[in-house]
């Protein structure tokens, strides 16, 4: 049995899905067709025999009524002909009471038992005159039994004809089942075939712009295969967007690296001929080389940080957001001494904690504060406010875990033009007014990535009275354990 199973499993593995589906559908329909034909055969056979048995019962009733009180004898013996009445004979329980003439029908021990009342009436099949007979043995009364027989060959012929006809119908049903199975597999798997063809074309051309044609109709009434094709199209769209984003990132990174690398090579070549330079020239070249190295190092580190989006989740800890904000503001004050940083921590926000990585949250806030300070005129403040909203209370995450947190960073610079707002968080995007300022255009993109990894949302907008306003919103719950890298 296990060998048969292994053969079946090996056959299934070596056959395509269309063949397996066609065989399965054909086998199911063929099994139903054969089952129906077999059931019909047994029903027809039963009805034909039942009709013959009813005729025997009627003949026995008539003989009993017409021959009451008669002794053992052969009552009628013309059943050898199809149109003749049934053969009938009266048999006693005691063989000594048999008549001198031989009986027409066979008399066996069960017949004597029926005559003696020791056995119930029964039907049997016998053969006489070279023809099959159907015989009924029933009590006649006073220790006698009545045997009645009719020819059974018409019934047997009808049963054979029904068997041949139903076999032909069953064979046609099996053939039709095979055709229907093939049609069902071909039609049902047509979207899968298109999906496979599209996937193979994408694998060959590496072009994710291909799509699978979907049948018209509302999305709620599509079948499973159509929904699979629609999901595959959605996946292709995401893949195309990812590939485009990757290509754009590589192109932007190469563009951003070209200028500092060129400057590094120029300064390195200049320093290689240091004997021709004055001490002041060598000092300027060395300083420019150091600044270029720091710029390239920062750009490469930013790219590495952005590429960590798919890393596994590191070990999280409960972080008091207010402390991280205070630390980031203190660092920003040392980096931007000409820019005042005003910090306000609202009631309920000082003790609020969220699960996260302190270094990553500090990097997020540093990027926001550096961006605000870069665009603020000297002497104008950068306003930082941390506030709590929601129901409040103490939860499993510590004080304030049941509330939401909102951090705003507002500067008094030129603000963000409306046409630039949708792109401020894109990698390497820099507005016209910012292209003359230092930076790589990765700070805000990194800030949004870190925010989303911590279950927060970072948005940008115009501040009332001028300037830019960045809002970092933490929900009432921390990020799930299986989220992106923090």
TrEMBL record:
Transmembrane segments: 21-44, 162-184
CDD domains with a match to the protein in the record: HAMP, HATPase, HisKA
Localization terms from the record: Cell membrane
Main location class: membrane
Keyword Repeat carried by entry: no
Class in the EC hierarchy, top level: transferase
Enzyme Commission number, as recorded: 2.7.13.3
Swiss-Prot/TrEMBL catalytic activity: ATP + protein L-histidine = ADP + protein N-phospho-L-histidine
SMART domains per UniProt: HAMP (SM00304), HATPase_c (SM00387), HisKA (SM00388)
Domain Histidine kinase: 252-478
Swiss-Prot/TrEMBL keywords: Kinase, Membrane, Phosphoprotein, Transferase, Transmembrane, Transmembrane helix, Two-component regulatory system
Top-level taxonomic group: Bacteria
Every HAMP domain range: 186-244
UniProt cross-references to Pfam families, sorted A to Z: HAMP (PF00672), HATPase_c (PF02518), HisKA (PF00512)
UniProt keyword annotation of Cytoplasm present: no
InterPro entries found in the cross-reference section: HAMP_dom, HATPase_C_sf, HATPase_dom, His_kinase_dom, HisK_dim/P_dom, HisK_dim/P_sf, Sig_transdc_His_kin-like_C, TCS_sensor_his_kinase
Protein known as: histidine kinase
